[in-house]
Design goal:
Elements lengths: L26 E3 L2 E3 L1 H24 L2 E3 L6 E3 L2 H18 L13
Antiparallel strand pairs: 1-2, 3-4
Helix pairs in contact: 1-2
Length: 106
């Protein structure tokens, strides 16, 4: 099992779960009803997508291996692609849902 890392001094605490404490009820919106679990999956995919995109922006699509210097494809490309597919499926299944944090269309 991995080691537990202490949070650095001055680091922001993890964001509170906006869905915490909500029951098994579904959320209503213009296009129908979304189950809370489906919304959590979407939110997690969006968070993963944004984290992967930040890594790609920082390190590039092709990076140099830290020890050998050999080029390799950034593994976050695959992670971003998978999270993007989850986000697209959610929006396809829930066309009336709008999220102000959704990634910008390219």
């Amino acid at each position: 099992m991995g080691k537990v890392k202490k949070r650095k001094a001055g680091a922001k605490p993890p964001a509170a779960d906006p869905l915490a404490g909500l029951g098994e009820d579904s959320f209503g919106f213009d296009g129908g009803v979304i189950h809370p679990d489906e919304l959590r999956v979407y939110r997690d995919a969006l968070s993963t997508y944004n984290e992967a995109q930040a890594n790609i922006a920082k390190n590039g699509a092709v990076s140099a291996h830290p020890k050998t210097g050999a080029p390799f494809v950034n593994p976050y490309l695959a992670i971003r692609t998978q999270a993007g597919a989850v986000i697209q499926k959610f929006h396809k299944d829930n066309p009336g849902f709008k999220d102000k944090e959704a990634p910008a269309q390219q």
